């Protein structure tokens, strides 16, 4: 019959403790890629994961611009790992407000209409998305 | 005997008279009641008619107010309408009545914006590539166009991108 020596027991316990404590400190993490769905006419993905992705193609985000005296315009774009790009534009003040809540660690989801205008934009700011 | 017969006859005559009086009173009361009901009905009808007439007048007054507000809004819209002519389907610079009333400088600025915006979109479609950093250039170049005109240009560009006819290139100029 094999007997565990005290030193081995301590090593095993320490390993378990280290492994479990790592996940406890890290919290929930998500690292999904930029996704484009032409049937649903939407694109989505976390900004941080897109930036940190292994390929050099992925990107997702929005631009806002306004010239003095003119209406603000927003443009959201996504490029997936295959280099396929989609975008939508908007002048809608409510959609613009949502776009302005975007930050470097957000998760962005945008829908487009057949004329290229944005039918909706969603921004999630959560701890489990990969930071830039 | 004769006396008894006389008293009986007087009693009968008195009862008949009382019966007639009762009938007359009943008829009078009925007539008064009917007249009262008719009068009440007329009063009620008159009150309802008055109410309907008042509501009608109020409705006309409100419609008149709304008409005045609409006229005022239309006049204000016409007064502040920018000298921004609607672009045609191919987003070519055109004139409309508002553009004609604008100054020559405004017309020139408008045409220049339309030309520059069209050139940016045409170049992107011809090259099959759109650099997002050009968005700022686009907004600045098309500042004299209306939202509708800018939308037409963005629609041309965006539908080309979403149909895979134009690629979005990396803003940093790296491989995409």
Could you characterize the architecture of this molecule?
The complex is a heterodimer of chains A (about 130) and B (about 180). By secondary structure, chain A is α+β, with helices and mostly antiparallel strands. Chain A has helices at about 5-25, 45-50, 95-100; strands at about 35, 40-45, 60-65, 75-80, 85-90, 105-110, 120-125. Helices cover about 25% and strands about 30% of the residues of chain A. A four-stranded antiparallel beta sheet of chain A has the order 1-2-6-7. In chain A, strand 3 and strand 4 form a beta hairpin. Chain B is mainly alpha-helical and about 180 residues long. In chain B, about 75% of the residues lie in helices and about 0% in strands. In chain B, about 20% of the residues are buried. Classes of the chains: A alpha+beta (about 130), B mainly alpha (about 180). The interface of A and B includes residues 70, 73, 75, 91 and 112 of A.
Instruction: Count every helix of chain B, treating DSSP H or I runs of 4 or more residues as helices.
Output: 5
CATH-scheme architecture of the domain at 35-124 in chain A: Beta Barrel
Along the chain, the helix and strand elements of chain A come as: HEEHEEEHEE
* First-residue to last-residue Cα separation of chain B: 145 Å
| Rg calc of chain B | 45 Å
Largest two-chain interface: A-B, 28 and 24 residues
What's the overall average pLDDT of chain B, rounded?
74
CATH topology of the domain at 35-124 in chain A: OB fold (Dihydrolipoamide Acetyltransferase, E2P)
Main pleated sheet of chain B = 2 strands, parallel
State the helicity of chain B in percent bands.
over 70%
Oligomer: heterodimer
The class by helix and strand makeup of chain A works out as alpha+beta
Total helices of chain A: the number is: 3
Domain module tally of chain B: 2
Outline of chain A = globular
SSE pattern of chain B, N- to C-terminal: HHHEHHE
Task: Summarize the main sheet of chain A.
Answer: 4 strands, antiparallel
- The whole-angstrom Rg of chain A is 22 Å
The CATH C-level class name of the domain at 35-124 in chain A: Mainly Beta
Q: Based on DSSP secondary structure assignment, what is the total number of beta strands of chain B?
A: 2
Sheet with the most strands: spatial strand order of chain A: 1-2-6-7
């Amino acid at each position: 019959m094999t007997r565990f020596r005290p030193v081995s027991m301590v090593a095993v316990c320490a390993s378990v403790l280290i492994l479990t404590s790592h996940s406890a400190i890290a919290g929930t993490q998500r690292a999904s890629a930029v996704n484009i769905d032409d049937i649903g006419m939407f694109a989505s993905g976390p900004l941080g994961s897109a930036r940190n992705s292994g390929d050099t193609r992925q990107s997702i985000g929005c631009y806002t611009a306004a010239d003095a005296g003119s209406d603000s315009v927003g443009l959201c774009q996504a490029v997936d790992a295959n280099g396929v790009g989609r975008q939508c534009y908007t002048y809608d003040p409510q959609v613009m407000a949502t776009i302005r809540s975007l930050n470097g660690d957000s998760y962005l989801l945008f829908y487009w209409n057949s004329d290229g205008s944005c039918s909706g934009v969603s921004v999630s700011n959560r701890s489990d998305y990969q930071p830039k | 005997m004769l006396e008894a017969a006389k008293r009986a006859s007087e009693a009968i005559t008195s009862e008949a008279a009382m019966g007639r009086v009762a009938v007359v009173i009943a008829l009078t009361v009925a007539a008064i009641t009917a007249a009262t009901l008719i009068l009440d009905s007329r009063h009620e009808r008159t009150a309802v008619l008055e109410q309907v007439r008042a509501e009608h007048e109020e409705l006309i007054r409100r419609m008149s107010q709304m008409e005045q507000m609409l006229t005022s809004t239309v006049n204000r819209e016409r007064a502040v309408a920018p000298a921004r002519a609607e672009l045609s389907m191919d987003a070519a610079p055109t004139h409309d009545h508002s553009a004609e009333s604008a100054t020559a400088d405004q017309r020139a600025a408008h045409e220049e914006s339309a030309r520059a915006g069209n050139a940016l979109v045409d170049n992107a479609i011809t090259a099959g590539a759109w650099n997002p950093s050009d968005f700022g250039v686009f907004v600045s170049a098309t500042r004299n166009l209306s939202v509708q005109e800018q939308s037409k240009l963005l629609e041309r560009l965006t539908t080309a991108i979403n149909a895979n006819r134009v690629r979005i290139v990396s803003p940093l100029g790296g491989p995409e």
